[in-house]
Structures are given as C-alpha cells and as structure tokens.
Amino acid sequence: MTSSQTSSARSIVSGRYPAGQLAFPHRDLLGIAQLERHEILYLLESAEQWVDLNRQSAKHSDALAGLTVINAFFENSTRTLLSFEIAGKRLGADVVNMHAAQSSVKKGETLIDTAITLNAMRADAIVIRHGSSGAVDLIASKVDCPVLNAGDGQHEHPTQALLDALALRNALRQRGETGEDFTGMTVTICGDILHSRVARSNILCLQALGASVRLCAPPALMPAGVEAIGAEPFTDFDAALSGSDVVMMLRLQTERMEGQFIPSAREYHHLYGLTKDRLESAAPDALVMHPGPMNRGVEIDSDVADMLDRSIITAQVEMGVAIRMAALDILTRRRRKVAGWEDEA
Amino acid sequence: MSASLTINNAKLLTATGIETGGLRAENGVITDIGDVAKADGAIDAKGQLLAPGLIDFGVFAIDKPAFHFGGITRAALMPDQSPILDYPARVNYIAKSGKPDLWVHPLAAATAGLSGRELAEIALMRDAGARGVATGRQWIADSGTMLRLLQYAAMLDLVVVSHAEDSGIAGDAVATAGEMATRLGLPSAPSEAESLAIARDIALAEMTGARLHLRQVTTAAGLQLVREAKSRGVNVTAGVTPAHFMLSDLATAEFRTFARLSPPLRSEADRQAVIAAIGEGVIDVIASGHDPRGPEDKRLPFADAEAGMAGAETLLAMSLTLVRDKVLAMEELFQLLAGNPAKLLGVNAGVLAVGAEADLAVIDPEKPWVVDSRKMAATAGNTPFDGGPTQGRVTALYKGGKAIAS
Fold first, then answer.
1. Cβ-defined contact of A134 to B301 (cutoff 8 Å)
2. What is the Cα–Cα distance from A293 to B13, expressed in whole angstroms?
3. Residues forming beta bridges with residue B229, ordered by sequence position
4. pLDDT tens, residue by residue, B45-57
5. Mean pLDDT, chain A, as a whole number?
6. Can you state the angle between helices A79-90 and A313-331, rounded to 10 degrees?
7. In terms of CB atoms within 10 Å, which of A92, A202, A286, B294 comes out highest?
8. Between A207 and B99, where is the model more confident?
C-alpha cells in the first residue's frame, strides 16, 4: 500500500464519519437520490485534499496506480469528459476514453452488450454518460466494477451537484462563513429545468444540505410535481430572485427539445436572462453559478458571468476535478484493499 | 355419433349469479344447465367455479400457451401485426389461425398501414372475418379521417376500437407527468392527453351513431367523459387492463421497463378512479393487452424500451382481486371478462346459456400462486406483477365442449 492511499483514507477528521466503508457504503455513484446527507458531506470533505493537490505544481498521486478507468460517453461531452480524464490521470490510473457516440453503438450493438464488453476488459471503474434516463443504472446492474454516472438523460448528474456544493461551500468559507452546509440559504435555479439532469441532482443535493430550492422557468420548461420534491416553482424570475442567496443559471437544452418551447432566444433573455440589474433583486452579495457551457447573452450576461466577487463559475470547473478524484478514490478503495474498505459494499 | 360433455357438481356462474349444479354440451354447444342427470363419463368439478371461457379483447400476439393458462378461449387480435392486418387475405388467415382450441377474432386496421390517413378496405375485411376495426397502438390524429372512419363503420355495424391518447400532447412521452416522472427524468405528458382524445372520439361517435370502444380508459377525467356520454345514450364502451387498476406510476421506480406501458401508468388517484368506474359499470371490458416482449425490447433504458406487458396469464387472477375487494360480484366480473367482449364482437359465447358455445373454464378462485417472469407460459415474461403473490387459477378449460390439455 502506498502512502497516498493511507493518507487519503486518513485525511478525514476521525470520529466525524462512520469508520471505513460505512462512511460511503455504495459500490456505484449513480445519483444524489441514493445518498444520505453525511455521505454527501464525506465526499465534499474528501475532495478538499484533492483541491489542495490540484493547486500544487506537481499534481500527482499514485492512489489509483495500475487501475484502469474507462470513460464511456454515449453522448458528446467536452468538459465533463476532460474533467473525469484529468481526475483519473492525476490519481495515477490508466484512463481510456470510449466515444461511444461514434462507435459500435452505431453498428446496432445493444447497450447491455457494450456494458458486457467493457466489463470483460476488466475495468476498475467505468464512468458513463448516456442520453437516456436510467441507462447508467442499467449498465451498473450488468457489470461488476464501480460505475460513476456522468449524466444520464434528464435524470441525474451527481458529480455536477457535488462539485456545485463544494464550490459554493468554499466560496462561503472565503467570506468567513463556517457552516458545513447551506442551512437557511435560498438557492434559485433558473432555466430549462425540464430537460436538466443538473437541476434534478442539485435540487436533491442542496436540499440534503439544508438549502431551500426555488425553480424558475417558463411553464413549458418546468417539470410537473416539483412541489412534491420540496422545491418551489416560479415563472417570474424577479420574484424568484427576491431574497435568493445563490442564483444558478442553466442553459436552454435545445438539442433535447422536440417542438418549440420558447419563441426566441431574444425573448427568453428578456424574461429569464440574468443581467446586472436583475441580480440587484437578489440578496446582497448573492453568488452566481452556472454548470456550463454558458450561452452568454441568452441566459446570462457577460458582465454577470465575469463578476469577480459574485460569479463562482470558474471555481465550479476547478472543483469538478477534485470531486471526481474523490469519487474515483472512494469507489475504488475496495479493489485497492484500503484498510476498512475490503468488504462487499 | 355426437360429441358430448357433462360436468357435474359445479358452481355455475350464470349471468344472474352462482347456482350449484351441472352443465351438458352437445356438439360444442351448451344444451342443459342446472340439474343435469348423471351421465357416463361425466366430469366432477368438485364444487369449483364453472365459468365461461375468457374473451380477451385486444391482444397484440397470438400466444396460445399463455391464453390457455389464463382461461382464455377467444381473443380479439389487434391489427398491429407484421404484416399489418389491413388486407382481407391476412385477416382471413388470422381468423383461422388458432382453431380449434383458440378462436382468434381479428380486428381490422382502420387505416392502410395504420398510418392514420387513408381508410383500409374495411368491408372486405369484415367479410374475411374481421369482428371490428381498430386504430392500433396510436390514435387517429386527423379528426376528418376519424369522422369518415366512424361513419363507415356505423354503416357496416362494426365496433371501432380506439387508442385514446392525443399524439400532439403525448409526443414521445413514456410516463405520466407528475412527481415520479420528474424524479426519474422521463419524458412525460399530462394525463389530459387521454381525456382530450376521448372527448373528440365521443363527439364523433355521437354524431355518427357509430359503436366506439375505447380500449383503455385510465384517467379520472377520461372516465368522467365516458360516464356522461353513456348517460346521454352514446354508443360508447370502455376497457382497461389490470395494470391500470392494480398499479400506479410508482411501479416505474428504478426504471422498471416491465412497467413501461401504453398508455403509461397513472397517478394513484387515477388508479382509484378506475376501480370506482369498474364498480359502477362505466368500464365494460377488462382485457390483458397481451404483448409479450423479450429482452431485446425490454432490457433497455426505460424510454428506449418498447411499451407492453405479457398479461394473459395474470388477467384472471388480477381481476379476481376486484371480487375479493367487493368492487364487483363474481358474475359481474365475468360480464367484463367474457360477456361484454362477446357482445362487442358479436359472437355467441361468453355466457353459460343454452345455445351458447361451450367455452368453459373450471376455476379455483382462491388458489394461491406467485407470478414469476422466468416461468411464464407466454413467449416472454414481461409482467409488471413479477414476484407478486396472487390468487385464482384455471384448473380445466374447454373450447367448444372439448377439453384443452393443460
């Protein structure tokens, strides 16, 4: 066992979390819905050491040396794929990217057969993005290594919600706030909620960490029954912003829209674009977030996206690598026989 | 020499109630009911229920082992076959395909290729053996086409079987809009997609006097429209499958594709409305919607999987819960499972009456068993009731007075 392996398991304050794998008793990371609050906090805390490492000039650990991580992306992605690839490489794993969008899937191979093929290649972790909700759960049920959901349809994108939570918590700490969660805060998520897996994972994650979540979208882009999930729906952006401590903007996922949902981008900006003026209706010093990619001038103006004291959009990207390193580290501990993590999860 | 069948010591399920006694059939037709004299070779039903064989209205596959397991002696086949039943010769072939021990009544495609545009050769298909016309798995979006179809079918006195789901609202939805679909991130449509379609179809049926059968009515709003239309005297009937009175959209949790159905499973409130409607007689038919689908259609992400369930084997057992829950009396249930479907199809069966076809099921309504998708008689085990304990089994089955080997 290398020193970095033991240090990664030891870096968490002892006694704060259940011992060993009880701190995170899951084989896979499929969604926030499966996680308890303390498991989310454990992941966030585990990511802190990787934030530190990533800020050094030698950004390398041997924690996953010898392990193979396959990034199987059945849907095009640049940012998330790059983030997972960097995370795996910084942990010393052999990372292989499979761009399934242009591979055997096009030749008619079923998803299950692709999963069985990946499994036969003895991956130690598989990161999957797929255009259909539930596809990652399905693959996870057919392979015997840890599976990380990098986004499935309109269902979940758990690492995005976790990195958002980490970025937000760090921004709050830089302002001198010491809370470990977001109790008492109000977060407004505005944009194409209907088609957004980021919104679904964030609703669950932010609520688990104590925040009140408001959702703002035109009716055609608001899913049914969000009140039952504990979120408060708005169609009026200014009303939603009033008293919000955090504003999370989402882009319009035009590639998922069948039929016309809004008249035009210009009209959308008129009603739902985050401008400097609009941001005034939010709480003083409200923070601005965006999971990217941004459409500047549509859902967010450049002068808001680039506000140094308010926008934490680039911090979100930075935290993404750390969160994915933490997830890869934790989920492979059983394979690496880290003390306390040897048993079947 | 005439073929005869005598069954004694049974609880006879007649249209008016259960009476103890026996039944005799000659040449495939019921000749005596009630106090039947002892005959050589008479069968002792040992006090079990003797009911008409089930008539399964609107199945998607001819799956004889599954039908016989479920006590089904006749099935009305939907036109969504390969090739589509939009041509007289295909209808003629299908009408003969199950005989002698399963009679298949083809429902002709309402439009050529089920495209929803040009009317198919309905009169020729009627004369080739079609017992109704059906819009298939989808509704006819063009109201002008639907109007002409209903006018034409009214003239031919054929029932029109409609799938009531507005395609403009339903789009590519695979779930009913609500908390469950939102949590799972599934493409969903509001349940009004059904009531909107029903409202149009009822308006056109009222205008043309056609016999309209809505194969599945699954929402409170849709059922209310049917209730009101019936009270106005519109010639409309409604059906449902056990899935929509046994399950709500909670059954789709964990992306279970066996619960991917068309129309999709609804809210718990709609499920309760279906049960209430069955109790007050708004629903006329309970059918299996039998649609066996193998892993190539079902072992997929939810939205990519095909809709449908293998329902023939569980139709009777699930329907019997309505009797146990006192929603219906046993004889009322068999109106929904056999009597009413026979009337819609215009066949002389579905009841225990002198002169009717001797299609008979001996049933132990209490016999417990467990639904197991791996051990189904059907060609595929895609049942949303997998793993569930249930009660009620067919212990002997007769088609036209002849025993069917189990």
1. yes
2. 67
3. none
4. 999 999 999 999 9
5. 92
6. 50
7. A202
8. A207
Predicted ipTM of the assembly: 0.90
Bond into B52 cis (ω within 30): no
Q: Containing H/E element for A128?
A: strand A125-130
Q: Chain A window 83-112: which residues touch B at a Cβ cutoff of 8 Å?
A: 110-112
Is residue B8's pLDDT more than 80?
yes
d(Cα A42, Cα B347) in Å, to the nearest integer? 68
CA distance B390 to B370: 6
Interface test with A, best of B183, B266, B296, B302 (most A CBs within 10 A): B183
Using the Cβ of A197 and the Cβ atoms of chain B, whether some distance falls under 8 Å is answered with: yes
Looking at residue B406, what is its pLDDT? Answer: 63
Alpha carbons A4 and B367: distance in angstroms, whole number: 62
CA distances from B93 to B87, B88, B105, B275 (A): 10, 9, 11, 37
User: Taking the domains of chain B in order of start, what are their residue ranges?
Assistant: 53-350+366-390
Nearest by CB to B178, which of A111, A155, A225? A225
CA separation for the pair B300, A180 (Å, rounded)? 40
How far CA A143 is from CA of A96, A127, B27, B176, B256, in Å, comes to 17, 12, 59, 31, 18
A112 burial (CB, 10 Å; 0-12 / 13-18 / 19+) is middle
Can you give the pLDDT at residue A256?
Answer: 74
Chain A hits for B186, CB-CB cut-off 8 Å, are 133-134, 153-155
CB pairs under 8 A between A and B: 80
Question: Up-side HSE of residue A163: CA atoms within 13 Å toward CB?
Answer: 32
Q: Do A33 and B300 touch (CB under 8 A)?
A: no
Give the C-alpha separation, A314 to A304, whole Å: 13
Q: Does A157 touch chain B (CB under 8 A)?
A: no
Structure tokens at A293: 């990619």
Among candidates B172, B187, B301 on the partner chain, residue whose Cβ is nearest the Cβ of A130: B301
For residue A229, the chain B residues in CB contact (below 8 A) are 179, 182-183
Whether domain B53-350+366-390 has CATH 3.10.450.50: no
Stated pTM of the model: 0.93
| Residue contact A226–B182, C-beta within 8 A | yes
Q: How far apart are CA B225 and CA B235, in angstroms?
A: 13
Residue among A110, A154, A228 minimizing CB distance to B185: A154
C-beta neighbour count of B353 within 10 angstroms: 15
End-to-end CA distance of chain B: 26
Residues from chain A that touch B179, judged by Cβ atoms under 8 A, are: 224-225, 228-229
Burial of B172 (0-12, 13-18, 19+ CB in 10 A): exposed
What pLDDT digit, counting tens, does each position of A181-194 carry? 999 999 999 999 99
Say whether residue A129 is in contact with chain B using an 8 A CB cutoff. Answer: no
